[in-house]
Amino acid sequence: MKEISSADFDQFVLKGSKVVIDFYSTECPPCEALAPKFESIAGLFSQDAVFYKIFRQQNRDLAERLGVKSSPTVLFFEDGQEVGLRLSGGIRRYELFESMKVLVGKEKVKEIKSKIQPETSDYDVAILGGGPGGLTAGLYLCQAKINTVLIDVGLPGGNVSTTHMVSNYPGFIEPQPGYMLSHFMSEQTKQCGTSYKVAVDVTKVDLKKKEIILDEYETIKAKKIIVATGTSPNLIGIPGEKELKGNGISYCATCDAKYFVDKDVIVIGGGNSAIEEADFITKFARKVTIIHQFEKLQANKQAQERAFANKKIEFFFEHEPREFKKVDDKIVTEVEDIKTKEKKKFISDGVFIFIGLKPNLSLLSSENIELDNWGYIKTDEDKHTNIDGVYAVGDVSSKKYRQITTAIADGTIAAISITRELDS
Fold first, then answer.
1. Residue 339 gets which letter from DSSP?
2. Domain count for the chain
3. Cα 188–189–194 angle (5° rounding)?
4. How high is the pLDDT of residue 143?
5. Closest by alpha carbon to 166, among 282, 308, 272?
6. Which residues contact 39 (CB under 8 A, 6 or more apart)?
7. Of 23, 116, 151, 318, whose CA is between 20 and 30 Å from 202?
8. Are the C-beta atoms of 116 and 94 separated by less than 8 Å?
9. pTM of the entire structure?
10. pLDDT in tens, 348-389
11. Are residues 227 and 367 in the same domain?
């Protein structure tokens, strides 16, 4: 696998046969999560296609010409023509395999996958999810000399890693970049001795058997499982959103705001994430228009004061988006005035959506784990769930407040509970 630049594009890609390109950025957790998967796929298909990486920040003109609007973005070329679907954002390993079917054929992919040898690993505790709650549990468990593995479909850090600045984490006088805070937590837990299985696809979870299958071939067996899968951004669910994700619509300001220098951006939402990230985006964008469905913002007062004082930010209250369309290089957002029902069209270079979060439970869809009325996992005070030997911590668990500090408290409680149970 080789890194190329815009100057090499015509020779290596347009004049090549079967080519796969990863457009990546720095300070981009999804890019870092993709890197080992991309390298693995490149190794498996080294005789069938050529794999390249392109640093998007230093090759912006090429990225713009190809319509690459999000990091990472993976493109597939055959004989100089782009083929198949583009992959962007949190790219899964199985998505890469599916796309390789278009490039090299289904039979070749089937043949290569059949040669991957299955593995089995045994641990005392498996932590499913690497946000603050999971990382803290891993830290306490490894310090207690308990054989622990931390599993994450991306890189450790959870939503904190894509938060611009964290100003209310104890121990730091100055606000901390979210990705650095996540990095510190992760490195502390890793250096302590917790094993990491990150940037993997979780094929199957069996909570009763305490088994987790990764990437279709590796089985993790454990005595205890901690579910720390966190939350993910809500989708609006209107026409154009799915189609334009990664092509003008983003859910991560840390990843993509830097590509909107002197451009117009729309932010959907009015909570803490929306307002704090909108303020961050103004460091790059010429103008940010916030569209919010309520008559007032829900963000904390400090964030509101900064936003209202920011001359680059304009607000449209009691408006909701109804459709997104791509017209040339612009995004047309159709919104409706909730009171008058009048519809308006906003033209921008990009849209960022921050409308809340939902628990990540798709991996547990076949499990009989007890949930509350909002879909979060119920636990007792020691973080036990209704399934023996299974715990839930962090934002995925049922509780009144969801903060970094409350997730850390959950991880601490679960780890101490497990330590006492395994020692008894």
1. T
2. 3
3. 145
4. 97
5. 272
6. 1
7. 23
8. no
9. 0.73
10. 999 999 998 899 999 887 678 999 999 999 999 999 999 999
11. yes
For residues 315-319, give the mean pLDDT.
Answer: 97
> pLDDT grade, residue 75 (50/70/90)?
very high
Q: Which range marks the domain in which residue 73 is found?
A: 2-114
Please give the average per-residue pLDDT across 40-45, as a whole number.
94
**Residue 230, pLDDT score:** 95
φ/ψ of residue 420, rounded to 5: -65, -35
Domain limit, last residue, from 89, 114, 139 = 114
- Indicate if 143 and 188 belong to the same structural domain: yes
Give residue for tokens 């929306």. Answer: 274
- Looking at per-residue pLDDT, the higher value among 178 and 142 belongs to 142
| Cβ–Cβ < 8 Å for 25, 254 | no
In this predicted structure, what is the pLDDT of residue 175?
A: 86
The CATH number of the domain holding residue 49 is 3.40.30.10
CATH number at residue 271: 3.50.50.60
Q: Which amino acid is at 225?
A: I
Does residue 104 share a domain with residue 8?
Answer: yes
Residues 6+ apart with CB under 8 A from 301: none
The confidence score (pLDDT) of residue 186 equals 93
The alpha carbon dihedral of 115, 97, 253, 291 has a sign of negative
Same domain flag for 93 and 10? yes
Q: What is the pLDDT of residues 284-313, one digit of tens each?
A: 999 999 999 999 999 999 999 999 999 999
DSSP string covering 270-324, please?
-SHHHHHHHHHHTTT-SEEEEEESSSS--S-HHHHHHHHH-TTEEEEESEEEEEE
> Burial of 35 by CB count in 10 Å (0-12 exposed, 13-18 middle, 19+ buried)?
middle
Give dist(CA 243, CA 325) in Å, integer: 9
Q: Are residues 376 and 295 in the same domain?
A: no
pLDDT, one tens digit per residue, over 101-152 is: 999 999 999 999 998 889 999 999 999 999 999 999 999 999 999 999 999 9
Distance CA(71)–CA(22), nearest Å, equals 9
Q: Is 57 exposed, middle or buried (0-12, 13-18, 19+ CB in 10 A)?
A: middle
